[in-house]
Design goal:
This protein has 457 residues and is α+β, with helices and mostly antiparallel strands. The protein folds into three domains: 79-252 and 332-373 and 387-397, Transposase Inhibitor Protein From Tn5, Chain A, domain 1 (Alpha-Beta Complex), CATH 3.90.350; 257-324, no CATH class; 412-449, no CATH class. The chain is built from 16 helices and 14 strands. Helix 1 (7-15) packs antiparallel against helix 5, helix 2 (24-37) crosses helix 4 and helix 14 (375-399) packs across helix 16. It is globular. The two termini are 36 Å apart. The mean pLDDT is 87.
Length: 457
């Protein structure tokens, strides 16, 4: 698959003039393969390459050489991304009218003798991994509607989502993308970001926070109109706010199944609030006051509690009724009047492609926790994970199966090394029907039964 994507030739071309003593392309392939098959540290990789995989054309690499290759990779990142996009988009005839973008965070295990405050890259910020106690970096990913990751970014750990849009827009401008509608999550919906996305006749589909308190959002949600069924679990309606240049186009999406889940979850919370309030009455003064303060400040329960003038806490029934209005709904805004409301809703729903890509990077490819300390090594580590994700997504598209399923089946194909007095024989186990199907679907050749015969001299 590496060769099918042209990765070997792209890297050889990029490093041709540099006259390295080691084969950078082979070192990078080894790290990408390791990330996809058996993610490990560079030290463990030395043993993995020599003992666990059959790679007869692979030089013996030491960990310091792998780190040196990471440094070299970072120096050609832009040219690499440009070449990979050109090759992959031509190979797959990718549809790039919609590009999905989102960010995540990835944390570091920090030794007790480290001083993270001296870093200017590994920083504390809002952690999407729920590890706010650890320093982190922020990673951005642009993904096509087929789920192919075409570009990756890495920023300091305290970078806010709203601050990256201009850089993303600028970085993608030079690519042959044609008419592009960028699809982003609610964290990017500031008016400043929307203006940036519309520069150069660009368009966006973006999520809006329904409880943001914005006047336009309230008006969009309050407009009457019937929902139209697009799919079994997706109903949509359009809501236009304002006229002329001030006109804003919203689409309200409704998922009946999600509405049931939201209602059941809220009912459970209300029951818990009522139990807490009942328990509160039994407490003596000081404990009562302390528990009442904690209850009002509670992130989940607090919004369903109101305090009377005499200090008594009651269930806020109006807040419960207000919450019902949002059950199963999400609000989308778009600048493109040519898209149908169905395309707007389905386009935004496909943002899950990016979330799925992040999930694969963090779990299957073990992106985190990271142990690198230098900024350049961190950036290179993320690029290697992106290349591994690109291969994984290509294989998943070809086979229509998850990478975990493909990997589990293919790793049962073994290379045996047999030694006799006459020499050494390397041969493969007989491929199963499932293994043959995977090779056939990916357009790659099944390894020969006899890999090598080496007579003793």
């Amino acid at each position: 698959m590496w060769r099918k994507l042209g990765m070997d030739q792209i890297l050889k071309d990029l490093f041709r003039e540099r006259k390295h003593e080691m084969d950078i392309e082979r070192a990078l392939f080894a790290m990408v393969a390791n990330r996809g098959l058996a993610p490990s540290s560079k030290l463990v990789m030395e043993e993995w390459l020599s003992e666990d995989v059959y790679l007869p054309d692979m030089p013996v690499f030491k960990s310091h050489q792998l780190y040196r290759s990471m440094d070299e990779l970072l120096s050609v990142q832009k040219q690499l991304e440009d070449r990979v996009f050109d090759h992959v988009s031509n190979l797959l005839n990718l549809e790039v009218d919609l590009l999905y973008f989102d960010t995540t965070s990835s944390y570091f295990e920090v030794a007790s003798d480290e001083t993270p405050e001296e870093d200017d890259f590994r920083l504390q910020g809002y952690s999407k991994d729920k590890r706010s106690d650890l320093v982190q970096v922020v990673i951005g990913l642009a993904v096509t509607r087929e789920g192919i990751p075409i570009k990756v970014w890495t920023w300091p750990g305290n970078t806010m989502d709203m601050n990256v849009v201009e850089e993303v827009k600028k970085d993608l401008m030079g690519w042959r993308l044609g008419r592009v509608v960028k699809v982003m999550d609610r964290g990017f919906s500031s008016e400043k970001n929307l203006r940036i996305l519309q520069r150069g006749a660009g368009h966006y589909i973006i999520g809006e926070r329904m409880r943001s308190g914005k006047k336009d959002v309230e008006e969009a949600l309050s407009k009457r109109g019937r929902f139209h069924k697009v799919r079994e679990n997706l109903h949509v309606k359009e809501s236009i706010v304002g006229d002329g240049e001030a006109r804003k186009r919203y689409v309200i999406a409704f998922n009946p199944d999600e509405a049931i889940r939201d209602r059941e979850k809220r009912q459970e919370i209300v029951r818990s609030v009522e139990e807490q309030l009942h328990h509160l009455k039994q407490l003596p003064n000081e404990a009562h006051h302390k528990q009442a303060c904690a209850l009002r400040a509670h992130k989940v329960y607090g919004k369903y509690i109101r305090q009377l003038k005499d200090g008594t806490l009651k269930l806020n029934k109006q807040a419960v009724r207000d919450a019902e209005k949002y059950d199963g709904k999400y609000l989308i805004r778009t600048s493109d009047d040519t898209l149908s409301i169905e395309d707007v809703a389905l386009g935004y729903k496909q943002l899950l492609q990016v979330e799925d890509a992040f999930r694969t990077m963090k779990t299957t490819l073990v992106l985190r926790p990271m142990y690198h300390r230098l900024e350049d090594r961190i950036r290179a580590h993320v690029i290697i994970s992106w290349l591994a994700l690109l291969l994984v997504r290509m294989i998943e598209l070809d086979t229509n199966e998850s990478w975990n399923t493909v990997r589990r089946n293919i790793q049962r194909l073994q290379a045996g090394h047999f030694t006799t007095s006459d020499g050494d024989l390397y041969r493969t186990t007989t491929p199963t029907a499932k293994q043959k199907e995977i090779f056939r679907n990916t357009g790659t050749e099944i390894p020969p039964e006899i890999l090598a015969i080496r007579p003793k001299s």
